[in-house]
Design a protein that fits this description.
The chain is built from 2 helices and 10 strands. By secondary structure, it is an alpha+beta fold. The chain is elongated. The termini are far apart.
């Protein structure tokens, strides 16, 4: 029986380094290629854009106008809550919808005051603007018949948040 001499520690270290380098090279090359491809994808717009949510629109509803010929042909008020999630006030500038050729923004200065048409409605910092027929509101002027629908699309345009499209639920008369 012959004894095999163990390699010296210096020799073992020299043989280990090339093996280790070869083992690590493959994964490192893969990481570099993937980072390059992901960077190119993001640079060309494939990754989309990151948009900070500025406003949250909830409880949007358009009640049925009524069951008589007089109330069914009139304007349609809305219910909606718009929350400003930022430290900057925003303004609702306009609203459009395929069911109405004209939509106005209205405001009330007090509980008994009449609604007046305004150019915008302010959404305060870290607060909510609650719209209803009894306060500030969005009013669809002479809309086409929408009572057979389940929702009414509304596109809201804000000064800072841009354009937001929502589907307001069609509800029973006088209810949100």
């Amino acid at each position: 029986m012959t004894a095999v001499a163990a390699p010296s520690p210096e020799l073992a270290g020299r043989e280990l380094l090339p093996d280790l380098a070869r083992a690590v090279a493959g994964p490192v090359i893969c990481v570099i290629v993937l980072l390059g491809l992901l960077s190119a994808w993001v640079a060309t717009g494939g990754g989309g854009t990151l948009t900070r949510i500025r406003l949250q629109v909830t409880l949007a509803a358009v009640p049925v106008r009524g069951f008589t010929s007089q109330t069914a042909a009139g304007p349609a008020a809305t219910f909606m809550t718009i929350r400003n999630l930022t430290g900057t006030p925003d303004e609702l500038l306009s609203v459009t919808s395929p069911v109405a050729s004209r939509i106005v923004l209205t405001a009330r200065t007090g509980p008994a005051a009449p609604q007046t048409v305004v150019s915008d409605l302010v959404i305060p910092v870290h607060s909510a603007l609650i719209l209803s027929p009894f306060s500030d509101d969005i009013v669809l002027q002479d809309p086409v018949s929408y009572e057979y629908r389940t929702t009414v699309p509304l596109t809201l345009t804000f000064r800072h948040a841009g354009t937001v499209t929502i589907d307001a639920v069609v509800t029973l008369p006088g209810t949100p």
